[in-house]
Structure formats: C-alpha cells, structure tokens
Amino acid sequence: MVFESPPKQDRILEDDAPIRPESGDDDIVAEIKSAILSKIVLAAGKDVKRANIHDWYIAAALTLRDRIVYQWLQSDRAAQRRGDKRVYYLSLEFLIGRLLTDALTNMSLMGPFRTAVEDLGIDFDALRDAEPDAALGNGGLGRLAACFMESMATLAIPARGYGIRYEHGLFRQIVSDGWQEEFPEQWLLSGNPWEFERGDVVFDIQYGGHLDRIEQTDKPSRTLWIPDETIQAVAYDTPIVGWRGHHVNALRLWSARAVDPMRLDTFNNGDHLGAMSEMARAEAISKFLYPSDETPAGRALRLRQEYFFVSASLQDILDRHLHSDGDIRSLPSHAAIQLNDTHPSLAVPELMRLLVDKYQIGWDDAWDITTRTISYTNHTLLPEALETWQVELFERMLPRHLDIIYRINVDHLAAAEKHFGADARSRASVSLIDETGGRRVRMGHLAFVGSHRINGVSAMHSELMRETVFADLNSLYPGRITNKTNGITFRRWLHQCNPELTSLLQDACGAAVLDEPERLRMLEPLSDDRAFQQRFQAVKRANKIALAQTIASQLGIVVDPSALFDVQIKRIHEYKRQLLNAIEAVALYQAILANPEGNWTPRIKIFAGKAAASYRQAKLIIKFINDIGNVINNDPAIRDLLKVVFIPNYNVSAAEIIVPASDLSEQISTAGMEASGTGNMKLALNGAITIGTLDGANIEILEHVGEENIFIFGMKADEVVQRRAMGLDATGIISSSPMLTGVIEAIERGVFSPDDPSRFAPIAHALRFLDHYLVSADFEDYYRAQRAVDMKWHSPEWARSSILNVARMAWFSSDRTIREYAEDIWNIPLT
Q: Where is the protein localized (predicted)?
C-alpha cells in the first residue's frame, strides 16, 4: 500500500516557472502519483484496477486540494496577524466553472499533474472533462464574480465571497426540435471534492411573525421581532487560488436545511410525505437559482433566497469581526461589504437589524457603520432587473426589515425635502417605496442610500446611471457614483483556455507577459510581420478545428474551419439582439440565393445561450435560430457558404472552447442597455474582432483597439431614446428596406416553419410594430457593417487587426478593476 506524505510546500510555493505543457520535477511528479493512488484507495474506497474516470478525477482534485489548503491556512493566518481589512463580496451568482485546471494553472502545477496522471495510464483530458461545471450562475454577473474572486486572491487581498450553494443551480438546457427545454443540472450528484462542509458554522435564518414594541422609561422604545419560522444556513467553503498560488481566499456558500428534518408525530400517524414538508420548504431555498417569478410562490421563494444568504453572510461577518477585533463599532475599518447587483440589497436593513436589535447600537451610529461598510455595484439600467418587492409580501415575510426600511426612508425623505424643496416629483422619485401601481420596495434605491459608494461597470453605464435611473439620487448624494469598468481574469480566459496562443505570446513578449499583461503591447510591431501572422493564424485555425469537431460530435453539423466563425454567446435576451443577428443570417441567405456566383465569404454563425425559463419571446428566438439553421444548413443551393449553429447548454466549459476559436465577436445590444459586458473582452483578448454598437464596454474597447480594428454600427444611446420617443412602429423603416421587407415576409409566409406558418408571427409583429429594441431600425446599418467584415476577411488586414486586438487588451484585466475597487471603494492599500 502506498500512503501519501505531506507535499513539499516550500518548493511548490516558490515555483514561478512559466506555464508550459512540459512535465515538472521528477520528485514532484512521483509525489503526486503516490498521493493520487492513495486517494483512489482511501477516499474513493476502490481498488485501483476498478476505478473509473470520475474516481480518478476525485483523487486528482483531492490531491491538489491538499496542497492548496496549506497555502489557504497560511494566507488567512497572515491576514489575521497583520490585522488586514477584509473584503466580503456578496453575490447571488458565482459562475466558477471547472476548478481543477484553474487551480493547476494558478499553482503552476499543470505540467507535473498531467505527467503524473498520464504516467498512471489515465488520459488527462478525459479526467479534466469528468469535472462538472459548478452551476452557480447564469451569465456575465456570475462569471464576473468568479473573475473578481480570483483577482482578489491574485492581489493578496483578504476576501471572502458569499453566495448560495445551489443543489441544481441554473437549469441544464436541452434543445429538442429547436425548442429549449429545462432540466435540473446535477453538478453535485457525485459530490464536490473542492468544498469543505463547515458543520460548526450554522446560523438561524428567520421569517414571518410579528413585531412587539417595548416601551422603556429612560431609553428609546425597542422593537422586538417574533418570527414564526426558523431555518438553518450551513456553510460550505471552496478555496479560490490566486495566480502563482501565493494567496488563497474562500468562497463560502450557504445550504439551507430545516431545524428538524421531519415531524416524527406526523410520520407515525401515517402522513409520511407531510412529515417532511418543513424540510422540503427549507431546502427549496438552495435548490435552484432564479426560480420563476411568474407565480406568487416563485416571487416569495426568490425573496426568501435573497434574505437567506444575506442574513447568514452578515451574521458570519460580524462573528468573525468580533472574534478578531472585539469592537463592533470598528467594523468599517476592518470590513468592506460589496453588493454585487441588487440581489443582496437586503444587507442594508439586515445589518441595521443586527446592529440595533442584537448589539444594541443606537440608530444613528448603526446607520453610520452600515453606510461606511457597504458599497453597491449596479449592473443594469433595465427596470425589471432593478428589483422591487410588494410591500405586502415584505410585511408578511420580513416585517422587521420593512419597519427598518420605513425608518430609513423617513430620514432619507427629510434630507430630500431639504434638497428638493417643494418638488414632490423628485421626492417621490428618490423614495424607497414606489407608490405608483401598488406599493413596492425599491431595492436599487435601498442599496444606493445604504452605501457609501455606488459604481457602474463601464464608463457609459456609470454616466447613464447619473443621468437616468439614479439621476435624482445622484443629485441628493453627489459624488457617490463612481465607475469601475469590468475586467476578466487572463489566467482563465487566455492562459488556460488558449494555451497555444499563450505559448506564442510568451515567445513574442517574454515569459513575464504571464505576470505583466501590459507586455502584450510588444505584439504591435509584429502585427504587420507576415511570419508572425501565419503563426498566429495557425493557432486560431487549430482552435477552430477543435470547435468544429465539437459541433460535429454534438450536433452532427459539419462546418469548415476555413470559414469565418461569427460568434454570439451570451444569455438570450431581446436587448442583446440575437434576433438581429438571426435576421441578418436570413437576409444573407436570400442574397446568396439571388446571386449564387457572388464573391461571398463562407461564414458560420454560432449562437449559444440560455433563455430564462419564463421568458417566452427569448425561447421563441432560440426556436427561430434553430429553424432557420435547419433550412439554411440543408439547402444545397448555397453550397455551404452559410451555416447557422446553436450550441446547447452554454456554460463556462463551452465558452473555453468557443472563445479561442472565434473570428468575429457579436456585441450588438441596443445602445444604452448593456451595462458592460465581459464576453466582449474575452473574445477580443483571444483575437476575435468585435462587431458592435456603442454600448457598455464596447466604447472602451474601441478606444483601446482603435476604430480601424473594430466594426461599429447602429444608433447611439441618445438616438435610441429619441427614436423610441417617436414610437415603436417600424413599418416606415421596413418599407424603405427591400432586404428587411423580404426577411419579414419570409418569416410570415412560414419559410422557416412550414409545419406551422404562424409560429414566428410574434417575432414578425415585434419587428413591424413593437421595435422597442431597435432591431428593425438598426438592421440596414448592421448588414452594411457585416459586409465590411466580409471585405476585411479577404484581406491581410484581418490578421493585423486580430493581433492588435490581443495586443491592446491588457487594460481589461480584472486585476486592474480590483485595484481600482481596493483604492477607491474599499480603502485597502496595495503594494
């Protein structure tokens, strides 16, 4: 029997070698092999000869985790010893993806582990693929949170992420006959080797009940909350490894459980299912991400989820602070709480409740502590995403918090009256309670008022916050809004997902480019070098061949790697305008049919993304994309010059294959509606050229890469506002565009739905009469921009622009973003 010995930690921590595919030191490889074999026996409980690929994955993950834990504990001890201020990042989503290759890359152990695994006769790529994606997020919001956690660890900022340990998370998307179907994502089915269950970290979370007022003769009256339901939050910790493995932080996720797993009296009376109803009600909180809000029960569950993780996280934060410092009043000096979007906005009244009710802090002092500790990141200007909750639901579920919100609002409106005077409209617009169409609590307003800093996530988005949705609040609290343009972690979205390009960049810019992305600028003189262009294009072609093989195996569609790979991968939403891309495919199809001998650019339009389960129009757009693909892909008349592909169940692992293979990056949201975007950054970093509107971070990408290296089209944000003010009817625009007329008429005739000609009538109707997202209005300019893409594709300028996109993307690192948060919002000095 082979037993593992403790890893040679000092050697591992000092290994700063560049990430290369070659094997590592023989001693380290032997040590890893010994540890993996021991884990197969001692953790999986199997004979090595009977172990399956999942057993090998678990053994490898546990072996790596053992090495991470040493540095994790050391990082935490060092931060405690220094008394460092800590960041607590509250997010309903953490789209962390697979962690094995992420941790191996950051620990500089990819080579030794690959060698060790393959020496044991196991295919390393198969082992890597055995890890399920952690289904803890939907899209950009969750992926940003994951990037930020990795960057905070890389910059050695003591931090902890807080979220929910969803048992199923976001649904698994199956596309059946072109329609999206949703199924539970079973990512925890075989266990999670990365997490540590903290059975000793359990907090009571309470709901409902009523309030009692306690009058005191010599003190202000007190409010006592008497809840009628208690569930428990149990902590699970996952280590997040920073670059080079020098610092490790924790992601703490909460799982819900009932105080009592079942009612024995009910069970013994024969009601076996009823006996477990309380357990089912409690555990529903951490079952799924974003339950449908179409029903009252669904809306109630969402609010329960948000309070659940906020309350557990704040109780944990205060316990940790008191343990290390002992004085609750010093919290702002030692803790920075960042709210990632409106979902954690309940942190404001919950922190007030804990300070006032539990720790007996006076109201004014508690408010000062709260506002100096909390800051808020806004991610959207869409009204439906700036959550509001019915007062009646709030009062029934969280009566004490509604009481606190009313008290906050009284003080807030008093300040508003001094500022705005007799302007009732302005006072109403800043109120925490929306009185129009039924009384609702405005969660975005609550987060704004309860925070010392509010940031947007691109320069344009932050400015629009000041001018539109938070205009009056910005007037009342000037200087609170700041900008922190999003970024991505280059370790995941370059080093890990595109190792051949990373190797080429090291050859061109030196190995230090892995630590200093600014060195990417050294590529600029090489952008005109034909030999370098050929090497660069060879890497791209290899990535395209890999994606083509994936498409063929998953969908049975054969695509030519020599064609232009035109990619739009993101959540399916009308404002992101997958529909604009799809109808341009129809127009291009019709143009090729009309002139089959034209000099057409072979093009593969690749879509991927999930629509919210209750979002009918978005799901119809998925069906439309698949149906037009079915017609176009099987029409021999166009000679494979155009194909349309929808890759199902888009997730981080799928993105890691698609992003390096992309030639054209579709970032075509209606101007003024995309807060930032991070997919635009990932694709550009990997050499895709952007076609997009002046929206979100596209504007800053334009500034960095240069207008000759990006394709910009469409109305600007102010023009969108003006166009909407004229009405949403687009019949005049359509009648002036024979091409768009032909597209819509084909849709209405059922060309793409011969079995049901009226299937896409809602899409045609929206294009004609309800053009809220300016799909029809921007169509002609989009089609023009796409033909400019075709012209560039046929010239040497394409390779040059692709290289320059990579060369000029260093600023979009999430390390830069986190440095700005640390300096401007969290007040944490960095060396």
A: Cytoplasm
